[in-house]
TrEMBL record, chains A, B, C, D:
This is Prephenate dehydratase. NCBIfam families: PRK11898.1 (NF008865). The record marks T177 as: Essential for prephenate dehydratase activity. One of its GO terms (biological process) is L-phenylalanine biosynthetic process. It comes from Murinocardiopsis flavida. Residues 199-276 form the ACT domain. The gene is pheA. It catalyses: prephenate + H(+) = 3-phenylpyruvate + CO2 + H2O. It comes from the Bacteria.
Length: 314, 314, 314, 314
C-alpha cells in the first residue's frame, strides 16, 4: 500500500514542490488539503501517513498557521525539512498580455513578496489574496474567472495549462521557503551529524531574566540556536511562547542535557522533533561545536565523572 | 488646520477604532489607506501628520506588514500605543439569516480567529479573505455582493448599514490588537514613569551567544523586555533581526545605558520610539525596577562615581 | 589495629581539637606532624591512614600551606570537615603575671587575630611567630624558654601545664577555623542530603569571560557556591587557579552535570571530595535548591528525555 | 621638604627595593615600619606622605595583612604598583660555610618559597620565621645571634654586611611580588591608556548568582578582570568579600559604567584606586578592548544616544 502524503494544496503549490523534494521514493499518494490545518488533521487522524507544510519564509517570516498547529492540538513531529527557492511567475490564460491584466490573484505571502514588481509593472491592477498560489492559478484557469492573472509557482502553470506572462516577478531573487515533513510521534530519524532539533518553550513566569535563563541552558552546553521566534500564547497581549530551532539531535548528549535543563525551568516544553538539516552541506552553516562541547568532549567528561564518583582520582 | 490622521482603512476597521482611542481631541481629518504600506507612505511624505497601524494581535502575533515598514524605509517613530479588544460580529444585509450564509468574507487574521465558530455554526460556508474586515463589510453592503456575510468590527456594521447576524464570533473572548501611533522623527513624548521603548536590533554576527549578549545588556541594567520577536532580514533563511519592546523611556538612565550597550555590540540598531504604556494602569504589569536599577539608584551611583573620580573616597 | 591519624602538631594544637571532633571513635593513634606538608606526606605514604589540617579561618582566610598541598602533589580527598571556634588564651609558667610578659610567641595566624588585644594589654611586648600555637606553648614550658608567654588553645595549656594569664585574647569572639579530614582516594562518603563538594579549577585561557563561564556551569544547574578562592598557579603574577566549594554531592545529578561542564571547559580540574557539611544543621545555610534544580527535578527531566528520545511525545 | 615614604622594614626588605623602583626621584626620606599595619598607620596619620607594602606574591598569593588594611580602617588609595622579582639569597656572617648552618631565619612567605632548596641542601637545619627577611638578616648580623643564616634579598646582605653562602635558593626562579604605593585620598593619577583599577566588593546577599551578577557588570562593558580574590569579612566562616583588579581607569567611560553597576547591586564597594599597570609594556598583557568596548565605541554610543533622545533618528 503506497504512502499517503497530505500537503497544502491544491495541486501546483510550492508545498507540492517541497513534497516532491522530500519524499524518499517516487511512489506514494498525494492528498492536497485546503489549508495547513487540514494537513495536520489528516496526519493526526491517520487519513494520511505524513504531511508537508510551510514553516517559514525568508522574507515573510514564520507561517502562523503551521506554527499554531505545531504548538496546539495533538502533537506531531517534524521528521525532515527542505528549503525551496521561491520563484514567482505571473500566469494567465493563453492570449492575455501583460497590459490586459487588471485583476491579479495570489496568496497573501506571495503578494507581499511581489509588491515591488507589481507597483512597477502593473501599478493599476487590483490584487486579490486567495488561499494559495495554486488556488489562484486554478481560479484563473476556470471559465469566467474573476481574475486575469495569478502569481504562482512554475508547477502550477503547468498543471492548470496557463501561460507565463512574466517570470521572476518576486522582489527578491534569493527568497526561499522552509517546509517541514510531519509525522505522528514514533521513532526519531537517526542522527546524521548535522541535525536540527525544534521545540516550543513556555516560560515559567514573566520575570525579567527568564529568557536569558532559557538561552543559557543552550549556551552552557555550546548548543547553537538557529531560530528563536516568539508567538503569542493566545492568553492576551504580552504573553508569548518561544519556538526554537537548535543545532544537533536530541540523541546527542549536549542537546539532551540542554533539553533536560529547559524541562526543569520551563512551565512546559513541546518537543517538535530532531531531523537532518536541509542546509547541512552549504557553506553558510559549518558544523563547529564550541570549545568543550563536542560529543567526544561529553563522552570524555562522562568517563571522568564516573571515575570521580568511584573515588578514582589518580 | 486640523490634524490629518492616516489609518488602515477603509472606514470601519478596528484601526479606525484605535485611532479614535488614540487621538487627543475630537477634531482632525481621517485618511483611510488601503494598506499598512500606504499609511506609512502618507506619514513619510507629509500627506498625513501621523498614522495608525496594527502592530500585533494576541492570537495571531506580529503584523508582518507593519513590522516590515518599521524596519525598512525612512524611519518613523512610535508616539503612542493602544490595545483594542477584538470583538467580531458576523454582519449581513437586512433579512439574511444565519442559515442563508454560504460565503463569508473577512481579513485573514480575523478568519484565523473565528475558525472555531465558523466550523461549528457555518460548517458548509466558503470563506474569503480580503484586505480588511471593513472591506469585507463594505463588499457585503454593495449591490450584487459576491459574499453573503462579513466578519468585522461593530463600527463597520454601523457604517455600512449591515445587520448583526451573530455577535462574539471570535474563538477567544479576550483577544486584543495593539495599535501604534506613528509620527515623523521629532521630540519624544515626555517620560511618564510607565513607558515603553521599541527598537530593532541587527546582531553583529551569528556566533552562538550573540542573542544572550544582547539580552544581557538589558538584564544588567534591570530593564525588562516585554516583547522579543525575530523577523527575517530578507537575506535568506536563517538570517533574523529582533524587534524588542522594553519597559522604560530612553530618557531614563537605565534605558539609555542599555541602548548604548546595544549600539556598541550590534551591527545596527533602529530606535522606534519611547512612549507611554497602554497597560500602565493594569494589574498585569506593575512597575517594579529590579534591585539596584531604579532611577534613584542610577542617580546615586552617578554621584558616587563623580566623587570617586575626584579622589573623594572617604 | 587502630587507625593512625596524622595532624598538624605538636600536641595541643587547634588541629588536635578538630581531630578529636572528627574521628568516629575513641580509639586510634594520633601522629603529630611538624607542618601541614608533613601531614599530607604521612597520608600519602601510608604512614598514617588519614590526616587533619586547617583549611580556612574566618578572619585570616585560606590556609596557604593546606591549599597548596591540596592543589599539588599526589591527590588526597577530603572525607569530612569540622569548624572549630577559635578561642585564644595567653599562657605562661606558673607565677608569671601579665605585667611580666615581654616576649609572646604564637602562630602567625593567631598573632594576627590577637593584635588588638596585644596592642591594648601588652603594647610593649615583642611578638614571635612559631610553627603553631602549641609549639609556642611547649616552648614557653621548657626550661630557659626564650618567650614569657604563648597564645594558644586551651588544650595546649593543659598539656604543657601552663597557667592562663588571660583568656579570650582574640579580637573577635566569633572566629572559627575550618579543618578537613584527608584520606587517600577511595570510595566517597555516601550523600547525606547536605553535602559539600570541593575542587580546583584551572581555566583554559585568560579571556575576559572565562570565570563567568565557569560560574555559569554551576548557576545553570542551580548549584550554589559557598567558597571561591583564587590561588596563584605559581607561574608568575596574574596567573590564578580557583578553589571552589559547592553545595551538594558529586553523586547527585545536578552536581555531576556541573562538574562535567567544568571538565569540558577547563584546562584542568582537580576533584577534592564530596563530604557532609559541618554546618548542615545551622540556620545560616538552609538547603534550598533553586527552581527546577532539585534531585527530583533532575530525575523527572531524565525520564522525560528518555521518552522524547524514544519518540513518545504524547 | 622631602617626601617621607613609609615602607615595610627594616632596611633591606624587598619592600625597600620596591620603594626605590616606585618613587619618582632620588630625594625623599625613607621610614621603615615594623609591620604592614604600621605602614598604613603612618600614611593615615600623616607621619608619612605615602607608603609601600606588598600586595601579592606569585607563589604565596595575596598578602593578608595588606589586604586587611586596604579593606578596613580609614581608606587609602593605590597610586602606583610595581612587580619585583623575588631572588632569595642565603646570608651568614663571614666565615660560615653551608655545612655549618643549623638554624635559618627568614619571613614565613620566603620560607615557603625556599622549602625545596632547604630540604635538599640543609635537610637538618631548623627554620625560624621572623617579621621580615631583612629582620632575619639583621638578626644574623647581631653578636650572639640566635640564627646561623638568613634567607633575604640581596640588598639586605649588603646593608647588614653579611656574606652570601648560597644564591638563588628560591624554589622558583620566576617568582615575583607585587607592591603598591599607598596615598591618602586625593586626585587620581591621570589615565595612561594602560591602567588598573582596584576595589573591594561586598555582595548584597548570598543568593547563588550574586557573584555571576557582579562579574556580568564587568563582562557587559568588556572590562577584563585581572585578579579576583575572596577574603573573609571576619563575620564567620562562609562570609566573603571580593578584592578585584580590573583593566582600565575609572575615568574611562567603560570602567565608570561598570563601577556604577557594582555600586547599585552591591551592599558596599570600596574603591582602592586607578593607577598605571606595572606590566603595561610586557607581552603578557596586550591591551585589547573587546568588541564594542573601546573608549571610542563608548563615545560614539553616547553621541548616538544624545541624538536618539533628541528625536533625531535619521
Amino acid at each position: 500500500m503506497p504512502n499517503r502524503y497530505a500537503y497544502l494544496g491544491p495541486e501546483g503549490t510550492f508545498t507540492e514542490a517541497a513534497l516532491r523534494a522530500l519524499r524518499p521514493d517516487e511512489s506514494g499518494e498525494f492528498i492536497p488539503c485546503s489549508g495547513v490545518d487540514a494537513v495536520f488533521a489528516a496526519v493526526r487522524s491517520g487519513a494520511a501517513d505524513s504531511g508537508v507544510a510551510p514553516l517559514e519564509n525568508s522574507v515573510e517570516g514564520g507561517v502562523t498557521a503551521t506554527i499554531a498547529e505545531l504548538i496546539n492540538g495533538a502533537p506531531l513531529l517534524i521528521a525532515a525539512e527542505v528549503a525551496v527557492p521561491v520563484e514567482f511567475t505571473l500566469f494567465a490564460r493563453e492570449g492575455v498580455r501583460l497590459a490586459d491584466v487588471k485583476r491579479v490573484a495570489t496568496h497573501a505571502h506571495a503578494l507581499a513578496q511581489c509588491r515591488g514588481w507589481l507597483a512597477e509593472h502593473l501599478p493599476d491592477a487590483e490584487t486579490f489574496t486567495v488561499s494559495s498560489t495554486a488556488a489562484a492559478a486554478r481560479a484563473v484557469a476556470e471559465p469566467g474567472a474573476p481574475y486575469d492573472a495569478a502569481i504562482a509557482a512554475r508547477v502550477a502553470g503547468e498543471r492548470y495549462h496557463l501561460t507565463a506572462v512574466a517570470e521572476g516577478v518576486g522582489d527578491r531573487s534569493d527568497a526561499a521557503t522552509r517546509f517541514v515533513h510531519l509525522v505522528r510521534p514514533g521513532p526519531l530519524p537517526a542522527p546524521t551529524g548535522a541535525d536540527r532539533t525544534s521545540l516550543v518553550a513556555f516560560l515559567s513566569d514573566d520575570h525579567p531574566g527568564a529568557l536569558v535563563e532559557l538561552l543559557d541552558q543552550f549556551a552552557v552546553r555550546g548548543v547553537n540556536l538557529t531560530r528563536l521566534e516568539s508567538r503569542p500564547t493566545g492568553d492576551g497581549l504580552g504573553r508569548y511562547c518561544f519556538c526554537l530551532d537548535a543545532d544537533g539531535h536530541v540523541a546527542e548528549a549536549r542537546v539532551g542535557e540542554a533539553l533536560m535543563g529547559l524541562r526543569r525551568i520551563c512551565k512546559d516544553i513541546r518537543f517538535l522533533g530532531s531531523y537532518p538539516r536541509a542546509d547541512a552541506d552549504t557553506e553558510l552553516t559549518p558544523f563547529m561545536p564550541a570549545r568543550g562541547t563536542s560529543n567526544a568532549d561529553f563522552h570524555e567528561a562522562e568517563q571522568w565523572l564516573a571515575h570521580i564518583r568511584a573515588g578514582q582520582v589518580a
